[in-house]
Amino acid sequence: MTTRHTLADFDYDLPAELIAQAPASDRRGSRLLYVAPDRLDDLRFPDLPSLLERGDLIVFNDTRVINARVRGRKPTGGAVEMLIERITGPATALVHLKVSHPPRIGGTIDLADGALATVEARDGRFFALRFDGIDELDRWLERHGEVPLPPYITHAPDASDAERYQTVYARHRGAVAAPTAGLHFDPPMLDALARLGVEQAYVTLHVGAGTFQPVQANTLAEHRMHAERYAIPASTVDAVAAARRRGGRVIAVGTTSLRALEASADEGGAIAAGEAQTSLFITPGYRFRVVDRLLTNFHLPKSTLLMLVSAFAGFERIRHAYGHAIERRYRFMSYGDAMLLERASD
C-alpha cells in the first residue's frame, strides 16, 4: 500500500551548527555514511572504492558553475542583487532579483564597468534582462560576478570558494549551483576508481537557482518543479548499456546526475542521447529505471532533494539515516559530508 506523504513528513530538526560553512581541508576529507538495506556504516570518503566493484559505472555531472551573483543599483540608487538563472543569449538572461521594489518592464539597473541591464519581460519570479555595454555576458560575469554560494552559507565568497565550489571535472559552463556530491572527488580518487575497473561517464545538467526554492504546497502533487537543461552524450548511453550487459551497477554522483539519467529513460530503462529540459519531481512511489546507487550529500528539511533520496532509498530508511547522521555530528549541505545510498527494492 502506497503512503500519501505531505510536506510535513519531510521535516526534521537540523541543528544550525551542522550546516557546513566551509569545505573539508581537502576534497576527500569528508565522512561517508553508507546506507544499506540492513545497516548504516560510518566511513570516510576514501573508503568509497571499497564499496564499488569492477564493471560498475559511475556517472558524474560535468556542469561548471558560473559567477552568477551580480550586484547593481537602480537609477534611484536602490541596491539590487541578481542571481542569473539561465543565460539565454550573448547578452540576455533570466534572473532572480533581490530588490525592495522590483523594476517594471523597461526599467534599468546600473552595473559594474558601465554596463546596463534592461528588464524586457517578467515571468513569475524570473525577470528577462538584456545587458548593454558588455562584450559577452559569459565573459563579463567572469570579471564582475560572484561565486553563487547557497543561501545557507553565510560568508562572502572568496578565492577558496572559487576553487572548492567547483568539481575538478567541471567542463560545460551554465550552472548557478554546484553539483555538490561531486565536490568530494579529486584526481587521485578518479584514478583509483579507474584502476579498480570502475567505468566513468558524464552527463551535463545545469543546476538552476530553483534547487534552493522551498516547497510551498502541503500536498506534494501540487508542487511544480523548476525546469533545468541537461545533455547526455552518446558515449554515456553506450556506457550505461554496457554496464547493464555485464551486470554492473549504475552509480549516480548527485541528484542532478540521477535526474538527467531518469528523465531521459524510457519505460525499459534505455536512455537517449541529446539535449532536453526536465522538471522531473521525484517523490516516494517513483519507479527508478536506470540508477542503482546514489552518492549524495545531506539535504535541507522539506526540500525536493530530501524527497528524492527518500524515494530512492526508502522513506523510513532515510529518516533513520538522517537521525543517525545528526546524532553522530555529520556535516550537512553543500560543503558537508556524503552518503552512499542503495536503491530500495521495488
> Largest sheet, order of strands side by side?
2-1-17-16-14-3-12-13-15
Share in β-strands: 25-35%
Helical percentage: 10-25%
Number of strands: 17
Please give the radius of gyration in angstroms: 20 Å
Reading the helices and strands in chain order gives: EEEEEEEEEEHHEHEEHEHEEHHE
Q: Can you give a write-up of this model?
A:
This protein is of the alpha/beta class and 346 residues long. Helix content is 20%, strand content 28%. The protein has 7 helices and 17 strands. It has helices at residues 137-144, 159-164, 187-196, 234-246, 255-264, 304-313, 315-327; strands spanning 31-36, 39-44, 57-61, 63-65, 69-73, 79-89, 92-98, 108-110, 116-123, 126-132, 172-175, 199-205, 228-232, 250-253, 274-278, 293-297, 338-342. Strands 2-1-17-16-14-3-12-13-15 form a 9-stranded mixed β-sheet, with helices on one face. A 6-stranded antiparallel β-sheet has the order 5-6-7-10-9-8, with helices on one face. Strands 4-11 form a two-stranded parallel ribbon. Helix 6 packs across helix 7. The longest helix has 13 residues, at 234-246. The radius of gyration is 20 Å and the shape is globular. 40% of the residues are buried.
